[in-house]
Hints:
This protein has 654 residues and is of the alpha+beta class. It is built from 21 helices and 16 strands. The chain has helices at residues 10-14, 31-44, 49-61, 65-70, 77-101, 109-117, 119-126, 133-148, 152-164, 171-183, 187-200, 205-217, 221-234, 247-262, 266-279, 284-296, 300-313, 318-330, 334-348, 352-364, 481-485, and strands spanning 368-377, 387-396, 404-417, 420-435, 438-447, 450-460, 466-473, 490-502, 505-516, 521-535, 539-552, 565-582, 585-600, 606-619, 623-636, 639-653. A 16-stranded antiparallel beta barrel has the order 1-2-3-4-5-6-7-8-9-10-11-12-13-14-15-16. A hairpin with a 7-residue loop joins strand 2 and strand 3 (404-417). The radius of gyration is 35 Å and the shape is elongated. It starts with 9 loop residues before the first helix and ends with a strand.
Amino acid sequence: MHPRRLLPTLLLLTGLNAHSTAVDPAADGDWAVLLGQQLAVLDWQPDDPAARRTAWRAAMRLGLYQQAAALAAPLTGDEQRAMEGDRIALEIRYGIIDRNTLRGPARFVRLDQALTASDTLAAEFLAGRTPDAEELRRLSDRLSALAARRRTADAVELYETLLQRELPVPLWARKAVAGSYLERRRPQPAVELYKQVVTASPDDFDANLGLFYALVENEELDAASAHIDRFAGRLPERRHLDGKYNGERLSADITADQARTYADRLQAAEQRISARRSAIPYNSEARQAAASLYLARGWPQLGQQMLRRTLGSDPLNPALHADLAETLLTLQDWPAARASLDDAERLDRDSSGARRARETLALHDRHELHVEAGYGQGKDNGFLGNRDWVVDSFLYSRPLAERWRVFAHNYSSTADFDGSLGRWLRSGVGAEWRWLNWRLTGEINGGSNTKPGLTASARWKPDDHWTLYGTAESVTNQIALRAVADGVEASRVSVGADWRAHESRNFALALAASDFSDNNRRTAVNAAWFERWYSGPRWMFETTLGADASHNTLSSPVSYFNPANDHSLWLTAAIENLSWRHYDYSFRQRLALTGGRYWQADYAAGAIEAIEYTHRWELDRNLSLRYGIGRSLRPYDGVSEGRTFGTLVMLWRF
């Protein structure tokens, strides 16, 4: 390559004669001028070794490593190695730009080439080789390349080996490794590394945001909110040079808005995000924050609409496609969810959003086992028996043709009545159809020496707030075992409606009618108001105010509890603590106290009292477990009966 073609505009910048070599402007740091001078000399005297070497030195100082190599200057071995190391470093920088701007396999070509250049060195170092200064520099550069290529395990291994051997790691490399720790779900070392970077460079935007997300994932949510609030407050709203709005300040403010969502302070998050969107309605970051909030508040249809609008202005954002895929799963639009996941993977298969959406779809495609069980112990001559058990379990198949599942259902209930054991056992098979706003099920069942039964149910969610549902059972399991012991069975129909303002407020109303084989007709109504008064990173406090009433037509005495008319009013107050969480694993404790009043025709009113303590475990995304113990006290025919009980609920996807 002709030397003059390396930097054709430099002579215009020098303002000097092409033969002038007397001045060395490098003393003043003007390496561009020096390079222009030496290229001019080489244009006339291509065999001048001093000019070639000086031009090489200037090109290296300017970061023009490829051009420096093309000069073929007479170099020492150490200089040649330094130039090769600089070329690799430049390739990594270009590779990171490619990763952030290109799509498809081409985005990683440069990074892979840069990593290949240091593969042998890395293998020898991990095997025990002691690196010299130049090799140590290349290993530090490799850390950055590994992190950018999302080879997070390799990045962490190399970094920890450097630490073990007490070798220095530059601050910029530590910032890159911090991101790898987050990808590996090890937030604590990420927090420590980001803090080191922020301490040394308080205005480093990426490091400050990295520290925020590391604190969030380390469950230090209050610290995360305080950090991003302080950082955003330090940034000027306007850029100094042109007076335009500072994009970094806007991003930090939006991240601070989302901090309230992550900390489960959703009302505060909604106030901030709504105000932000009013000010900048078409901003992609603000729209994405709004979509996340809508999903957290239980408004998936509104979240879907916002995600689609955001994708209209930011169609190459894989995180948006991944979020839309998970939202569409919630909305039971299976084909559209898979198409959105395909879009996310096409843009960036290895992104955290695409990976999570892929896992969510994989969970949806598994079998499901849902079990509810309960145990109670009361009076020997009580209406519920001295000891009673109930286990209600459903085993679902994988989805069939997207919208269908078949299931097996088993219901088992037993109770001890003064030494006499009452049993109710029913098993059935059925099919479930789910599509968009609808869920329909049908089941045929039998058992307990009685006729076969049919059960059908329907649920309709016309929007984010309303849920309407109904069930019809020709032979119902909602029957007292004392009635079963007397050979009585019943059919049952129920309908209900829930109106859910958001995750913290819900109103429910349900009606039920049962037709017993002993000619009794029972009608019942119940209503409830749920309100969550406080929620935060660790604690929640909520109440449920309920009222119910029933009427039975059979006036003759029966062994099961059969009040002519009754009603009750009760209030449950519950406090819940998130004791521990690490990504998809968590443990919560809940204490609920209930107090109320019960009225039964022909008997004096009595108190309703209950206490219940429960644990809830999320054991990865495929298994959840809830169990609890409690004690209740309420009247039956004017006599207050106490009952100790335990509950268990399990959902397993396999």
